[in-house]
Every structure is written in structure tokens, then in C-alpha cells.
Amino acid sequence: MRTLTLRAYRPFTNCAPLFVGEIQEGDRLTSLDDIHVLVVDDNKQMRVLVRCLLRAGGITKVSEAATGAEALQAMRGRLVDLIIVDWKMAPLDGLAFTNMVRRSPDSPNPYVPILMLTAHTEQSRVAAARDAGVSGFIKKPISARLLFDRISGALTDMRVFVRSETFVGPDRRHLNDPLYRGPFRRDSDRDNSQSLNIDDLRWSA
Question: How far apart are CA 163 and CA 169, in angstroms?
Fold first, then answer.
């Protein structure tokens, strides 16, 4: 049984708390076979491939949806810990689906980690998906190593979840650079010269 752990406590989306580092007596761990992943893709062969890779890596609770509407219905029927969604779908693409999950008042879980599956990683697309609130990217052609690297990153993400008029999703600032001197765009940055705004930095895919 494989175990996914965190360095510090955080409330995991719909699962037990996770921990990492030195395991202390009484700590609870969440194994991979406890995690429920929802795969959203209008290409059946791609859904089958992702499911097979997930099962081979120890994640056995996998649901599939061919459309964004089916995915939202699946989220209402069962707790989901991670979503893997393809960018290019019809009639609702992955970007629109992410926006619905993050912003819709009746979203089943606006805080669930979302990984975007795409063959296109141009900077403009990365920025658009980041601004929609995705947690990370999985670049096609997909590999087991890349898939689980991205899953690990999404499920152990310690960033604050931001909700504002213009953005809903994980904090877009990944790094703290002691040499960075601005600009600072948030009230919490006024007395903090350690913050790095990554609006112009590209996520790796």
C-alpha cells in the first residue's frame, strides 16, 4: 500500500488529514487507494489510459465523465479529492469547467484540486488556465511518472486558496524571493518584502 504524506497538517479536501516528514505516534495517513480521482475527458481512449495509469500507481477509486455536465453530476453524487480534466472538450472545455467548479454558487466543491490535461503549453494558455484556478498541468503525451508527480504536487499543495472578485483558486505566488522588491499588490504585502508575485512566471507542464 502506497502512502501520500505532507510535511505539515492541512485540511485535505474531502479526505483524512495528511502529514509528511517524520511520522509521529498518532499521526493519520491517507493511502493512495483512499483517494477518489475524477477523470473528465470527451475522448474515451484517453480516459481509459489515465484510469489504467492511476490504477497501476495504486489509485483505485477512479470515476470518469465525458463532459463537464457529467463531471459536475458525479461531484454531487460522490466526494472527489482530485479532478483531471482535458482542456479540449465539447461543448464545455476544461477551462470553462474549471471556472464553473471554482466560481459557480452551486459548485459541489470549489476547493478541489484540478489538474489540466493538455498538449498545448503555450504561455498564454498556461496563464489562462492558472487564472481560471487550476492547480497544475499534465502535458501530453502523458507518462506515469509525470502523472504522479503532478498528482503529488496538487495533493500536497500548501498554498492558500484565494477568493476575490477577479480570481478564485490556489495562490498564484509559488516562491519567496528575498531579493524581490515589488510590486506588491495585496494588503498583506504592505509590510512583507519576502513575497514574490509570479503573475509573469510560467508554470512548468
Answer: 7
